[in-house]
Amino acid sequence: MLVHSRKGKWATWAVFFVLFLPLFALPLLVVLAASFATNWSSVFPSGFTTRHYSAAVRGESLQALTTSLVTALTASVLALVVGTWAALAGHALKRGGKRLMDALFTLPVAVPSVVVGLAILVAFSKPPVLLNGTRWIVVLAHAVLVTAFAHQSVSAAIARLDPAYEQAAASLGARPSYVLWRVRLPLLLPSLTAAAGLCFALSMGELSVTMMLYPPDWTPLPVQIYAATDRGALFTGSALAVILMTATVLVLLAVSRIRTKASYR
To answer: Which class is 58-264 in CATH?
Structure first.
């Protein structure tokens, strides 16, 4: 911790809890309590039931969770591949080219996500590439939105790499492709897993673009949560939100274990 005095540490922790509890922890705890509640007659929900979860783990809700997982995993893989390629290519460019590459990949998060969704809808609603009304337009939109984070994460990691490893491999006669696969990418693996986890989490919670593009047979869980709360089913929506958070955290924990093993390597 940057604060070394005892009083300073206590003051820092006090400010942290004062800000963390009401702004972050309390809303999540209220959602958790509402997912088990039967009524909401006071400030906090009351009663206890598990029927909201019984309804949330079957039928359309289970299908929506599966849709979110498949969409997030596919979009994360696409974003990681494209973002890593762009970061590696941009690192080899001159300063002007690198800035242009960074600007291009940052653009989707620099403008409102609704604009990105509208651009994708207009671009892929007519031949030769007709994706409107299919699940692939949702996956593409998520990938476009999260690729910027993968690109920036990997670019920062590449800038911190010690070039001595690559130079040593090249001096021993290794081809550029061998240096890439056996030297650079293994060194970048902790950053790659961190970028994959970030992309997955962002994709799992994406709503605005999804609302513009999703077809009836490909409804992610955030859309299901919005639909439930919009018709007044707050307790059902809360249960779905808890399931969404739990699934996201479990995947992130698995990615974190891979990242830890990669760091030790």
So the answer is: mainly alpha
